[in-house]
Amino acid sequence: MDGVRSGEWQRGVLATCALAVLADGETHGYAIAQRLQAAGIGTVRGGALYPVLNKLEQDGLLTSTWQEGTAGPGRKVFRLTASGRERTQQVRDGWPAFAAAVAGVLGVRLETPVTVDEGER
């Protein structure tokens, strides 16, 4: 994915993807960024991620606590609220139809159905 498109696409899906990562369990921002990069989303910088996480917290979709570091600095650990879990499921349910609609607007065909294997989350 080239740099220009990567940034545009990331901004559009960063909150959704952060919620999906947190659906697997509580974690800190750096681990969320690493997971998204490993998934092929691209490099997610803290300057983009932390404002999104803070907004999700303000919206009541996640909470955070400060965890003291044992061998280094402390870090903020995020976890989904019940509302966050509900929103994540709503997005998962609606994503295939949304992706197909965007593909239609772009005039491209989705060669592979957009699905998430439960074992991969």
**Structural class designation:** mainly alpha
Shape: globular
Q: If you average the pLDDT, what whole number results? A: 87
| Amount of helix | 55-70%
Count of individual helical segments: 4
Topology, number of strands: 3
Q: How many domains, in number, for the residues?
A: 1
Q: How large is the radius of gyration? A: 15 Å
CATH topology annotation: Arc Repressor Mutant, subunit A
Strand content is 5-15%
Order of strands in the sheet with the most strands? 1-3-2
Q: What is the CATH class designation?
A: Mainly Alpha
CATH superfamily: Winged helix-like DNA-binding domain superfamily/Winged helix DNA-binding domain
Low-confidence stretches: none
What does this protein look like?
This protein has a single domain, classed as Arc Repressor Mutant, subunit A (Orthogonal Bundle). The chain is mainly α and 121 residues long. It has a three-stranded antiparallel sheet with strand order 1-3-2. The model has no long low-confidence stretch (mean pLDDT 87). It is built from four helices and three strands, in the order H-E-H-H-E-E-H. It is globular and about 50 Å long.
In short:
It contains 4 helices and 3 strands; from the N terminus they run αβααββα. By secondary structure, it is mostly helical.
